[in-house]
């Protein structure tokens, strides 16, 4: 069955770099797009970026200077790297997938706290 | 970027009632709209796609409607397990994919 699972450090110091991994199963990264969406505590959802099935990427313009998404298709993993973290980057980070439109499967999310 | 305006921000209703959540897009999104349910402590789950198509396994008391810039999610016969936050999302014009600000539904 389709699964996505995020992993990474729960605590990051201000100004440091966040590295997260999304490990997928039940589908191919060359057939589906994988997105990253984040949610500050008690707030709404913010789309961060996508790696398309063909390998190209697109980013939220507000995050583009700090954000990079890549993948390793042989390991069925997608990676998020974001630098210069600040306290406002605290929240739950989700990966999910889509094909044409809606996001049909989401990971469980990983909580990231930016604090010294 | 397309802006999604969702209302109300919170909603309290009794068991068995019918509730409606609205979402307005800043331009025509041609029914390229999804609704997600996020129960407390869980990740969002797809409820409705293409404005009115029910996702697999979603109870038929949920329905979506709308066109152009105006869309709505209706929940008939409210159940206790429907306590959640609900978000709309457009996928007509991207990037970015944009979400509404969410509606928190509670039982009165």
Summarize this entry quickly.
The complex is a heterodimer of chains A (about 120) and B (about 110). Chain A is about 0% helix and about 50% strand.
Distance between the terminal alpha carbons of chain B, to the nearest Å? Answer: 36 Å
Q: Low-confidence parts of chain A, pLDDT < 50 over ≥5 residues?
A: none
What's the gyration radius of chain B in Å?
A: 13 Å
Instruction: Give the total of beta strands of chain B.
Output: 11
Order of helices and strands of chain A: EEEEEEEEEEE
Order of helices and strands of chain B: EEEEEEEEEEE
Output mean pLDDT of chain B.
Answer: 98
Sheet having the most strands of chain A: 7 strands, mixed
Q: Residue-averaged pLDDT of chain A, rounded?
A: 97
Distance between the termini of chain A: 39 Å
- Proportion of residues in extended strands of chain A: over 45%
Q: What is the overall silhouette of chain B? A: globular
Shape of chain A: globular
In percent, how much strand structure appears in the residues of chain B? over 45%
Unreliable stretches of chain B, pLDDT < 50, 5 or more residues?
Answer: none
| Number of contiguous helices of chain A | 0
* Structure class of chain A: mainly beta
DSSP strand count of chain A:
11
Number of helices of chain B: 0
Structure report:
The complex is a heterodimer of chains A (116) and B (108). Chain A is mainly beta and 116 residues long. Helix content of chain A is 0%, strand content 52%. Chain A contains no helices and eleven strands. In chain B, strands 2, 4, 5, 6, 9, 10 and 11 form a seven-stranded mixed beta sheet that branches. In chain B, strands 1-3-8-7 form a four-stranded antiparallel beta sheet, with no helix packed on it. In chain B, 0% of the residues lie in helices and 50% in strands. Chain B contains no helices and eleven strands. The mean pLDDT of chain B is 98. In chain B, a hairpin with a 3-residue loop joins strand 5 and strand 6.
